[in-house]
Amino acid sequence: MKVIIDDECRIIAYAQTGEIDGFIEVDVPDEFVDNFKPEYYKYDNGNVILNSSFKNTSTVVPKFKATSELIADLTQQMADLVIQFYNQGFYDAEKMKLFVKVGRLTSEQYQEVTGSDYVQSL
To answer: Which residues pair with 2 in a beta bridge?
Structure first.
């Protein structure tokens, strides 16, 4: 299990999959996921233990985006960059067609940016 600990070694977040900066890999008790609350557990000498000083507060649990949301965000960022480069003269309409063909732009984005209908070349 990957966990994030604060400066007092309290576990404030965890991830079962994926990689995020600041996480450390630890073995956790079987009930960890079911009982998890930020700061409920501590990391002590390589072990995950109950935090005897835990006070149930309204600490906000960090929200991580689902993989599909991250991919959608990256896809939009790529489209934005391609459009920016087109507007700056780095790409022409033919290059933009390639971006549609490989899925980096939609045909609607192509039409909006170039002013021409997208016609798939064979």
So the answer is: 15, 25
